[in-house]
Amino acid sequence: MGALAIAGLLTGAGPARAGDPSHVALWRLEAHGAYLHGDRRLGAGTLAPYNGYGFWARAGLSEFPWKWLGYDVLAHVGVVGTPEGAFDVGAEGAVAFAPARWRGSVDGSVILGIGGGFGLERPAWLGRAGTGYPLLMARLTLKPKRSMRFFASFRFTPITSDEGWVRSYDLEVTGGHKWWYLGLRGRMDDVTQGDPERLYRTYWLGPTAGLVIR
Fold it and tell me: What pTM did the predictor assign?
């Protein structure tokens, strides 16, 4: 009985309904472009500046079959214009929790998630074919009106490999009306490697535009 009570507490009485503050589903399609600048490793550990660009198409699905518990999936495909010139493809999935939802003059919700993903190495100059990694995510959604939506999402992916320790910090802030939105997305990739160890950092920043399917 105790286990059933805990399960009921986590999942709620049933699916979240549209219009209820617990309804935090988000299905979206978006395009994103970014300029990148940072340091890369040359030879035994020389710091060399580099820059480039990237263009991506992304599809995201966040759904809550239960009041408190759901899932978040995000996939992307794109190109990265660096000296290595590579495609960038990947997919991430997380178990998501909705610890906070509220209704008022501004409706809103907070989502937290933990999961993993698989994709090509970040940044591209590492040159590895692909890797799996863990994922931590969070998203804040604010709806001052039924036809308006603002959300900010953060994703952190730490990767430990033979090539070094890679940490990616991804932040996206958007706002929109009805079915469309515009925003800004930035990412910072940190790579620690070499003997002695050095930090190689890359910054990404650019606009994003998308459609809300649900």
Answer: 0.84
Assigned token pair, 128: 């590895």
Per-domain residue ranges of the chain: 2-212
Note the pLDDT tens digit of each residue in 186-206: 999 998 887 778 888 999 999
CA-angle at 18, arms to 15 and 23, nearest 5°: 60
Residues 6+ apart with CB under 8 A from 146: none
Distance from C-alpha of 125 to C-alpha of 137, rounded to nearest angstrom: 25
Residue type present at position 41:
R
Superfamily of domain 2-212: OPCA outer membrane adhesin/invasin (2.40.128.100)
CA atoms within 13 A on the CB side of 109: 22
| Nearby residues of 6 by Cβ (< 8 Å), 6 or more positions away | none
Residue 197, judged by CB atoms within 10 A of its CB (0-12, 13-18, 19+), counts as exposed
The per-residue pLDDT for range 18-66, each reduced to its tens digit, is: 444 445 788 999 999 999 998 877 766 667 788 889 999 999 999 998 8
